[in-house]
Design goal:
The complex is a heterodimer of chains A (473) and B (321).
Chain A lengths: L1 H19 L7 H10 L4 H6 L9 H30 L13 E7 L3 H14 L3 E5 L2 E6 L1 H27 L1 E8 L3 E3 L7 E4 L11 E11 L5 E12 L2 E4 L2 E3 L4 E3 L2 E18 L2 E7 L3 E3 L2 E8 L6 E9 L2 E3 L5 E3 L8 E9 L17 E10 L3 E4 L3 E18 L3 H20 L3 E10 L2 E10 L3 H18 L9
Antiparallel strand pairs in A: 1-24, 2-3, 3-23, 4-6, 4-22, 5-7, 7-8, 8-9, 8-10, 11-12, 12-13, 12-22, 14-15, 15-16, 16-19, 17-18, 19-20, 21-22, 23-24
Helix pairs in contact in A: 1-4, 4-6, 5-8, 6-7
Chain B lengths: L3 H30 L3 H29 L7 H21 L8 H17 L14 H43 L3 H11 L5 H6 L18 H34 L7 H21 L5 H24 L12
Helix pairs in contact in B: 1-2, 1-4, 2-3, 3-4, 3-5, 5-6, 5-8, 5-10, 8-9, 9-10
The chains are: A alpha+beta (473), B mainly alpha (321).
Bound molecules: protoporphyrin IX containing FE.
Chain lengths: 473, 321
């Protein structure tokens, strides 16, 4: 089966491209950077699907060929295997041509000698048949059986993968402390649905009561913990905590702790009128936290704030601002005000400010409880600090099948690699009132080990029959 | 929290173990060069001493941080070196009686420890993503698999060296009387691990022109050993990949995402599956099989080092700054 070998090596080569080029499904931003840096190559790489190797037509192609070759290989093998299992071991013609061979006489009737041989072979778990003055024994079908199981398990694996892809979904959502999230399409920040998922949302609700993060003294995070309440149909179901490595499972949906961040509570007023008030999600960006506020209601022009948040404001010896500990010890909010047209008529990210039609105005920084007064009666204040937690919700109905496939792969692999198929024959013929014995053996694999096994068998048979006489000739 | 005293003790024992391994390696090579079995026995004793020291170093590291001592790249490499030496002592030496291989495996152990030191991370706790019992299972399976692949690579290299000398001997005997000397010469030309002997030991005495290779098992034996080792390693690696997928399912909400580490673990797995196919179904052995085995080991190294050091991904918490 040289085809399988070539296809396996091709898959390996293809997969390596997937780790050398940035992959769009994993990291779209890196792909864009790569494309701007390599303008000449980018169109070719794009055509060849190098930014999505594992979804590219050629990877699927190799994969498909491998599957076809796999099916084409295991179907006849299963058929042959069943036939071999049904068939009894054959009593071979001339035994002396076999790789292992001994002969001798024993002071027993041929019948008694063969019964002894049967006894010894059975104790060694050989399958055997006795006919025409010969015992034919065979062992090691587990090898082919295991190999077939192992290879067939790949089809099970494929089935599990497909079911997960077609019927499952994953979605991410950021929830601020004290806020609520409902398992419906619009509440997710991003979502990937299988073709046959069919909007099958459960509609349960999650309220994030608290998010706790603990640090080791050196600033390395120790635990992330979301304390939530889960409601379904308006009833409180449970109040669990969700931690990394400890997802919550509810109605076939697993809810994972993915990441977290700061949500400073920002209040913006103009002439005393509250235009913006609430916790705002800040995203991690180069050691700082970055967020925006868009206030179209301000007059005479619309206002936008590009903000940075430092949980622990410190200055180094030169007076430069540095981020201290990751904990909120001396929180500071720094902002840059822009005025002009926010451009809200076109779709845009809530986490970015589109400043093309805006001009920079004031900038400033405030601490907890601080207020900054800007021209036109605008006031910015930092009134509180919350955290948000990012959850991933996923349902994968293929998972149990994948687990089954994994178990079959391992269970099949071990006998496929470590057992070997071998045969032993014992023939007895009358010879001057005693039995003339011929013992022969053959192994398909692990021939050296079989040589030892054969010797041991002859010794055990010898013991059972109370000595085989000296070989005659 | 971190027990600084134990951590310091662990570091001291680490350096001691590394030194002792290097000493054992030199002794093994000396015993090869001088054909002195007694030196080989001493080398084995020294290697045992190194392994015990190393075990103590790993244990104190684990105790100092109250967790399994395989949580960052320094600790993986360190553990890899330990498993290599232990596999040599318990299996290759005691069960197979192949003491000739000792210097090469100890050399591999020294390399593993030295490379560990290059990515040293002080004793510390684990980030949240790593505090799972799957780390214990997945990582130790991956290290055990890598260890066996590394040993199979040593066998593969020894096969290639021995095979070459057998071929040369065959042609040399046919052509001239300097065949034996020629065999000794080839070992230093090849850039194979065996030229460590030539560099680090005094010139071999008279008569060693036939080379220590003469005392090595046949090329065919090494070929089979490499095969057996890969057969043994393959299910362990398969298990490691599966355990990793289960862990990813627990921690990240997906069992497979073609993250660079996952991709390379997969590539390694497929190459060794190719190796097993080549031997079982295409009947490849010898040099052609060795080519795939070499490719496989390069992929192991890439999975292990390159991915952690160059390519970021979800797995990029190897503790390397
Ligand atoms: C794509 C199609 C494939 C075909 C046609 C195929 C075919 C075969 C055949 C005919 C054997 C011989 C069994 C024997 O001699 O005992 C075999 C063995 C094996 N295959 Fe595959 N195989 C395929 C895919 C795979 C895959 C994807 C893997 C794993 C990554 C794999 C791993 C193995 C292993 C480990 C063995 C056992 C080798 C041994 O007996 O030492 N195969 N395969």
């Amino acid at each position: 089966m040289r085809t399988a070998l070539i296809l396996l090596l091709l898959i390996a080569a293809g997969a390596s491209l997937g780790s050398l080029f940035p992959q769009r499904p994993i990291n779209p931003a890196t792909v864009s950077q790569w494309i701007t840096r390599n303008r000449g190559w980018a169109p070719i790489a794009e055509k060849l699907g190098l930014f999505d190797v594992f979804g590219s037509w050629w990877f699927m192609g190799i994969y498909g060929l491998l599957l076809i070759s796999l099916i084409g290989c295991i179907l006849p093998r299963w058929r042959a295997f069943v036939r071999v299992l049904r068939a009894r071991p054959r009593t071979e013609g001339t035994l002396s041509v076999q790789p292992q061979y001994r002969s001798g006489t024993v002071a027993l009737t041929p019948d008694a000698a063969l019964t002894g041989a049967e006894r010894v072979l059975r104790s060694k778990r050989f399958r055997l048949v006795r006919a025409d003055g010969t015992v034919a024994a065979e062992k090691g079908h587990l090898r082919e059986g295991g190999s077939l199981l192992f290879h067939t398990a790949f089809l099970v694996l494929l089935l599990g993968m497909s079911i997960g892809k077609l019927f499952g979904f994953t979605g991410q959502v950021a929830v601020i402390e004290g806020e609520r999230f409902t398992d419906t399409h619009i509440d997710y920040d991003s979502i990937t649905e299988g073709r046959y998922f069919n909007e099958h949302f459960r509609g349960f609700q999650i309220v994030l009561d608290r998010f706790d993060v603990q640090w080791y003294p050196d600033g390395v995070p120790k635990t992330y913990k979301s304390s939530v309440r889960l409601f379904d149909g308006g009833k409180l179901i449970e109040s669990p905590t969700i931690q990394v490595n400890h997802p919550l499972t509810y109605r076939g949906v697993r809810i994972y702790q993915i990441s977290w961040g700061w949500a400073p509570v920002i209040k913006i007023t103009q002439h005393g009128k509250v235009l913006f008030d609430g916790p705002t999600i800040f995203l991690p960006q180069q050691g700082l936290w970055h967020g925006v506020a868009k206030i179209p209601e301000t007059t005479p022009l619309q206002t936008g704030f590009d903000m940075s948040f430092l949980p622990d404001f410190e200055r180094d010896a030169n007076g430069n601002v540095v981020a201290g500990s990751p904990q909120a010890i001396r929180p500071v909010l720094a902002f840059q005000q822009y005025v002009g047209d926010l451009g809200l008529t076109t779709a845009q990210s809530v986490y970015e400010l589109d400043t093309i039609r805006m001009t920079p105005a004031e900038s400033g920084a405030i601490g907890m409880g601080g207020v900054s007064t800007l021209p036109n009666g605008i006031e910015v204040s930092l009134t509180g600090l919350k955290k948000y937690s990012v959850f991933e919700l996923a349902s994968n109905p293929g998972a149990p099948i994948l687990l089954l496939a994994a178990v079959l792969i391992l269970v099949g692999l071990i006998p496929a690699l470590y057992s070997s198929r071998r045969r032993i024959w014992v023939r007895a013929a009358p010879h001057n009132g005693v039995a003339h014995l011929e013992i022969a053996g053959q192994a398909m694999q692990r021939k050296a080990a079989f040589e030892e096994e054969f010797k041991t068998f002859v010794r055990d048979l010898d013991k059972d029959l109370h000595r085989i006489g000296a070989p005659d000739g | 929290m971190v027990n600084a005293e134990l951590a310091r003790l662990s570091d001291t024992l680490f350096w001691l173990a590394l030194t002792v391994y290097a000493g054992a390696m030199l002794l093994f090579f000396a015993s090869l060069a001088y054909k002195n079995a007694r030196v080989g026995s001493v080398a084995t004793l020294v290697a045992w001493g190194g392994a015990l020291t190393h075990a103590a170093s790993i244990a104190t590291r684990g105790l100092s941080v109250q967790r399994v001592p395989w949580g960052n790249m320094f600790e993986y490499s360190n553990m890899l070196g330990f498993l290599m030496v232990m596999t040599y002592l318990l299996v290759i030496d005691r069960r197979l009686g192949l003491r000739q291989v000792g210097g090469f495996v100890l050399g591999g152990g020294v390399l593993a420890l030295a490379s560990a030191r290059l990515v040293y991370a002080p004793a510390g706790p684990l980030v949240p993503a790593l505090s799972s019992y799957w780390i214990k299972i997945h990582v130790i399976a991956a290290i055990t698999g890598s260890n066996l692949f590394a040993l199979s690579f040593i066998f593969t290299v020894l096969y290639l060296v021995k095979d070459r000398s057998e071929r040369k001997a065959a042609t040399a005997y046919a052509g001239s009387t300097v065949g034996a000397a020629y065999i000794g010469g080839t070992t230093t030309q090849e850039g194979s691990p065996s030229d460590l002997v030539a560099e680090e030991d005094a010139p071999a005495p008279e008569g060693s022109a036939t080379g220590f290779l003469a005392r090595f098992p046949s090329a065919a034996t090494f070929d089979t050993l490499a095969y057996r080792t890969i057969q043994f390693a393959f299910p362990i690696w398969t298990f490691a990949v599966i355990a990793g997928a289960i862990w990813a399912h627990q921690a990240w909400g997906r069992y497979w995402g073609w993250d660079p580490k996952e991709t390379w673990a997969f590539i390694t797995w497929v190459i060794y599956a190719g190796y097993l196919h080549a031997r079982a179904t295409a009947g490849w052995r010898g040099r052609r099989a060795a080519a795939i085995a070499t490719l496989g080991f390069l992929s192991v190294m890439f999975t292990y080092y390159a991915v952690n050091l160059w390519i970021a991904g979800l797995h990029s918490y190897a503790g390397v700054k």
